[in-house]
Design brief:
Number of domains: 2
Keywords: Cell membrane, Membrane, Transferase, Transmembrane, Transmembrane helix
Oligomer: single chain
Enzyme class: transferase
Number of strands: 8
Membrane topology: Multi-pass membrane protein
Order of helices and strands: HEEHHHHHEEHHEEHEE
Number of helices: 9
Helix content: 40-55%
Strand order of the largest sheet: 1-2
Strand content: 5-15%
Largest sheet: 2 strands, antiparallel
Main location: membrane
Radius of gyration: 22 Å
EC number: 2.5.1.145
Length: 322
């Protein structure tokens, strides 16, 4: 039985997860996700414009990236939880009932990456420039979105008697069978919030300190987020498909770490210099006072043939590399 001290110092869960607004039902989970998207867009816009991109070009990219991220998140969730939607007595149409919950971040990353790539082709922004600009804001958005799990009282961890144990309503459908009322659980949402917030600070620091470009900062985002997710996912007790004794999202997180490391070292080898511009060659946008490549106009991709960048207002050649 848990001590009274643990109960007093535990983390309570909200008693409400939604509220009516006219004919609509507004879910706090959705508000957390939307707030994260807005914050990420503002941060990415600021970081891209400092590089010399057109202000708010990020909106054009988000028009494709955000919907495809939501679609990818839903598809990944359905594929990794087939028993929820397929089989005797199941409503197949529930696959499309995204408002009832059920999205996966790793699916969002895949769908969002496809949408961002298409958006970058559309706007002329280099995909890796956008990815690097996005990385800190994306991690912050994920931290904000996790508060939605707190409101929904879902995706919590194993039972614990630690002082910061999370209270869950005994009537909650996710309550593990056989556990007595009053049991506390690991607040995995809070662990991820803290880890992701620390990751934002790390990415901002390391990106500025080492001037990471060509996707290397985004690669570190993948490694950081996925490494933490391996731990938090391993102590969660919500239903999940198991392969070789490991939850599917743990496998996805391991894959995320590997992909991040591959991107980092491959891009470091392919592009030892700095990006000449956040735009693809021939698609440059210029404005008075624009600063390109974080005041690194003299640096170019040494793997590229010599060119004359008229729109950027600088002559770039192999001899300009420092």
């Amino acid at each position: 039985m848990l001590s009274s001290v643990a109960v007093v110092t535990s983390i309570p869960s909200p008693g409400i997860s939604s509220f009516p607004l006219g004919p609509l039902t507004i879910h706090f989970y959705a508000l957390c996700i939307l707030a994260g998207i807005v914050v990420a867009a503002f941060m990415t816009n600021r970081r891209l414009t400092k590089r010399g991109a057109e202000p708010w070009v990020v909106i054009d990219i988000c028009l494709l990236a955000v919907p495809l991220a939501i679609i990818g998140a839903r598809i990944f969730h359905v594929l990794t939880h087939p028993d929820f939607y397929f089989g005797e007595g199941k409503n197949l149409w529930a696959v499309f009932f995204i408002w009832e919950g059920g999205i996966a971040i790793f699916g969002a990353l895949i769908g969002g990456a496809v949408g961002a790539w298409l958006g970058c082709k559309w706007t002329g922004i280099r995909f890796w420039s956008f990815a690097d600009a996005l990385a800190p804001g994306l991690l912050l958005a994920q931290a904000m979105g996790r508060f939605g799990n707190w409101f929904n009282q879902e995706l919590f961890g194993l039972p614990t008697d630690l002082p910061w144990g999370l209270e869950i309503d005994y009537q909650n459908a996710a309550w593990p069978a056989g556990l007595p009322e009053g049991t506390l659980f690991h607040p995995t949402f809070l662990y991820e919030v803290i880890w992701n917030t620390l990751g934002v600070l790390f990415l901002l620091w390391v990106g500025k300190q080492f001037r990471l470009q060509w996707g290397r900062l985004f690669a570190l985002y993948l490694v950081w987020y996925s490494a933490g997710r391996i731990v938090w996912e391993s102590i969660r007790i919500d239903p999940s498909e198991i392969f070789f004794g490991v939850r599917t999202n743990v496998w996805a997180a391991i894959f995320g770490v590997v992909v991040g490391l591959v991107i980092f070292f491959v891009q470091k080898r392919r592009h030892p210099g700095l990006e000449p511009s956040p735009y693809q060659r021939g698609r440059e946008w210029s404005a008075d006072g624009a600063v390109h490549s974080q005041n690194t106009d003299d640096f170019v991709d040494v793997s590229a043939p010599p060119t004359s960048d008229v729109n950027a207002g600088t002559a770039t050649s192999a001899s300009a590399v420092k």
